[in-house]
Amino acid sequence: xxxxxxxxxxxxxxxxxxxxxxxxxxxxxxxxxxxxxxxxxxxxxxxxxxxxxxxxxxxxxxxxxxxxxxxxxxxxxxxxxxxxxxxxxxxxxxxxxxxxxxxxxxxxxxxxxxxxxxxxxxxxxxxxxxxxxxxxxxxxxxxxxxxxxxxxxxxxxxxxxxxxxxxxxxxxxxxxxxxxxxxxxxxxxxxxxxxxxxxxxxxxxxxxxxxxxxxxxxxxxxxxxxxxxxxxxxxxxxxxxxxxxxxxxxxxxxxxxxxxxxxxxxxxxxxxxxxxxxxxxxxxxxxxxxxxxxxxxxxxxxxxxxxxxxxxxxxxxxxxxxxxxxxxxxxxxxxxxxxxxxxxxxxxxxxxxxxxxxxxxxxxxxxxxxxxxxxxxxxxxxxxxxxxxxxxxxxxxxxxxxxxxxxxxxxxxxxx
Length: 416
Prior knowledge:
By secondary structure, the protein is of the alpha/beta class. The chain folds into 2 domains: 35-178, 3-Layer(aba) Sandwich (Rossmann fold), CATH 3.40.50.10860; 189-341, NAD(P)-binding Rossmann-like Domain (Rossmann fold, 3-Layer(aba) Sandwich), CATH 3.40.50.720. The protein is 45% helix and 17% strand. The protein has helices spanning 7-22, 26-32, 81-97, 118-131, 151-165, 189-205, 221-232, 255-265, 279-282, 322-330, 338-341, 344-358, 364-389, 393-412; strands spanning 37-46, 52-63, 69-76, 103-110, 141-145, 213-217, 236-242, 245-248, 275-277, 289-292, 311-313, 334-336. The longest helix has 26 residues, at 364-389.
């Protein structure tokens, strides 16, 4: 029976598998198998009942050889050092695979924001931002939204550290409100990138998207946008889910109508003309295309043999364990890995950072066109390596990304 590995174990195993094939120098492999810097902070927050509660937060910077660290901040009860380390490593490869000049970072606070008031979340965010002062910055480490954080969260972080500096630091974070230097198109960017690589995969595999049964696990920002845009491409959305459960109808449904239901009821559950399914059952339902867009380690050695999808496009970070990877690959499932599939978000975050630095902003049409070009070119590069080296797409993506980061480490040399 498989014991589900930790996210960090998964990240390191994926890295070592590809690094060994590249034959990079031992010192570079050892360096890239660890994080450059990790900050652990504890900080007090006065809650609504006037009691003081102590929170623990993390920020991990995996590698900055190619540029500043880049990655989200999440608020969740299960946030751990192990998780943020893994996510920061994946961010390094994600930035490298799409060729943007960032390294990998990630952060989080152990909390359940759904049980906190907006004022409490703001106080906690501002105290956490203060704890990160000197560790993050426009040229060193640029946070962004992640699980249970959003544009408002980024606005609070930017405002807090701007007050400390005495001037406005628009490039400090990305994923901000447009009114504060946020980029048009940022909210939809990750899901849009998922749709772009899905279209490319279908084209290369000769699979018409029109009418193919499609399942999306997770109906947050990434999952819902992916469902909308895949529906627009002709996919038949037959099942979606959120933290409360899932819905299924083999005849398909309009995901935008599901979103209207979510706005009224706070969940996809009980959407008309669908049958309830659990998140675990959802992954094993009949479909041609599966988009896991929830949390890590959803596809494991235990359920992978029962997965019926012909194509998997990873909207989430690390949804597939290495054991599941091997099983799915042996079954002939075509999988587009997270570091390529969901890189649309960090790509448009890069666009936002560039726009803030130069105080010159682009139209949404320009942003979407630039995003499509980068995602299409990155898919072609990974596909080319997969064909040439006779490896799966995840290994190909890692070969491309690790090769780029290793080259940066190599040519920078060792100081002093």
